[in-house]
Amino acid sequence: MPATMTATGGSAGPPSGDGAVAGTGEVLLGVRNLSIHYPIAIGTVRAVTDLSLDVYRGEVLGVVGESGCGKSTLGLSILNLQKSPGRIVSGEILVNGHDILALGPEDIRAVRGPKIGMIFQNPLTSLDPLMSIKDHFIETMRAHDPKIRKGQIIARAEAMLEDLGIEKRRLSEYPFQLSGGMRQRIMIGLTLILDPELLLADEPTTALDVIVEAGFTELLAKLKRKYNLTVVLVSHNLGLVAEIADRIAVMYAGRIVELATALEIFQDPRHPYTRGLMDCVPNILLDRKELVAMPGSPPDLVNESPCCPFAPRCPKVFARCLAETPRLLADAAPAGAAPAAAASAPAASAAAPRAVACFLHERTN
Amino acid sequence: MKRILNYLIARILLTIPMLFILLTLVFVVLRVMPGDPVSSMLGGHAPQAVIDAKREALGLNKPIFFQYLDYLGQLARLDLGESMNFKEKVSTPILQKLPATIELTLAGIIVALGIGIPLGVRSARLRRTWQDSVIRFFANITYCIPVYWMGLMFQMLFGVFLNLFPIAGRVGTRVDSSEFDRTGFYIIDTLLKGNFTAFGDVMYHLVLPAVTLGLTLSGVFIRMTRANMLDSLKSDFVLATRARGVAENRVVYTHALKNALIPVVTMLGLEFAALLAGAILTETTFSWPGMGRLLLERIYNRDYPVIQGIIIFYALFVSVVSLLVDIIYAVIDPRVKL
């Protein structure tokens, strides 16, 4: 079969044959056959190619991959905010079963914030420097409820700041008066004050130092419990993802190459790319002198070739890999590691079988 | 409050050395220039004795350094001296013409910003469309056309061919000059007296000169607004605000535009001097009885004290505006402290 895999029937409804997972729990966010292209001078960058993914209510899903693998584009497209000139060329994004890509500009506003909240890569520049923190809260809440009283907003913002461990006098300050960690927490507060069902975090700790990052992880875990959140965490930081994710989707060249519980990914990576990523994580317990790096670089997303995108870098490449692109196929039944995974992950997503896009495993299945 | 007061005092004190340097330059350049007030007054064929007597009376026979000291001494007493060509104090014609210049330049700024900012925003939002190209072309053209040529063309087109607007003066002959005896600002005077016919006539006369002056500067503001708007539309906080579901118009005008305007405000302070230079030419083109025309007239006469006096007023005008710009800057940007 050629590289395109959109051949499966009705794109709405439950995941079809090539869908990543088939769980029993409630699917909060469903991405269906999503393709995002950036037209540029020398051609078209295929940032995301025919990607399908389900996020179950209550889970933390980590999306990991190298720079340029399309993970941030995927994150932004969930709110239909992909950067210009990026365009969603096909696919659906279902929130509680409704395709948000079909919504007009006014209707999608009701999704951005109250349904799906997003925190961004760079907390230092994600607040308007000319606006006080208080006005950020007022604007955010008024955007969704124009009649809400100012006193009510301030009371809620003060309670939120307390949750985040920031003194409430900071409300009247401006972003430049706050530290990076505080600005990050304010960003989270601005997102959570709308009580979203899903929190999208796009590289939330990239701009922060490790101490603040550790605090962030703890805070996120606490807030997740308190606000009953479902979290999609986009990151290239495997350590961060390992700490809080229930399931992990590994992306490569705009596709998901492996999807499994965090435990399975770390203990038994199946895709050669996942395995390579794990080998790159420095381990102070092993007596290694040098850091391990994966040979080669991510593929050219402009010139499409029929082969598996990872084939040029893959240590286990064989003839078939050069002829066609493997599809993301789920195991027939939950993997053997399920009992161990069930302890950490909610029942719904633990029941979802692991999936991998590699011919090595297609043969064994 | 005390800090702001201290800041204002410091700024005002700083204008004194600036004026001193400027005046020294003007004083020297004027006297290096060929010709002097005496020859321009008496013509080329006056007897030498008459010329000498006149030079003596005006103090022009003294060494230039002493003339300079005399002038500074005069200034220290806040006295601008007397005109060399006419029997009047220097301040008389200047104060008489100053309101006309202020009215014209402020109207010019309003036109420049009123055209520059909306077109710049539109151009940025419609980036790489035909509208963007048209606006950018328009910006380049208005920037390139000399202000006096544009004034002449407007006079011909709107005044002569279309007969839409008056092409000279501040007000029509049917309005009595006693209407303007309060402040000298025709707009304010007519409003104070409640004479709306006269007010309309004043505004009607203001249109062409203000548009001419404003248009030449609008190009700079279009390009500045467009460039800064493109930057701020791409900024993280704009994306984050959109992601919280804030309406697009609010994102563009409250967040992106407000941040884009900070460099534009800076530019406004810098461009103000260029605007005054343009105003001198515009006043001449439109027979606008302002300081610019007075300056030109007195340069022909080599009326040194009046020229120096006008320069002082222009310099004060520029420093007042740049002070205002700095205050505006501190008001919109909380990171800036006066």
Commentary on this structure:
The complex is a heterodimer of chains A (365) and B (338). Chain A has 365 residues and is of the alpha/beta class. Chain A is built from 13 helices and twelve strands. Chain B has two domains: 75 residues, no CATH class; 238 residues, MetI-like fold. In chain B, 76% of the residues lie in helices and 0% in strands. Chain B contains 13 helices and no strands. Chain B starts with a helix and ends in a 6-residue tail after the last helix. Chains A and B meet through helix 3 and helix 5 of A and helix 10 and helix 11 of B.
CATH topology of the largest domain in chain B: MetI-like fold
In CATH, the topology of chain A is named: Rossmann fold
Low-confidence stretches of chain A: 1-24, 334-345
What is the share of helical residues of chain A?
25-40%
The N- and C-terminal alpha carbons of chain B lie at a distance of 11 Å
In terms of quaternary structure, what is this? heterodimer
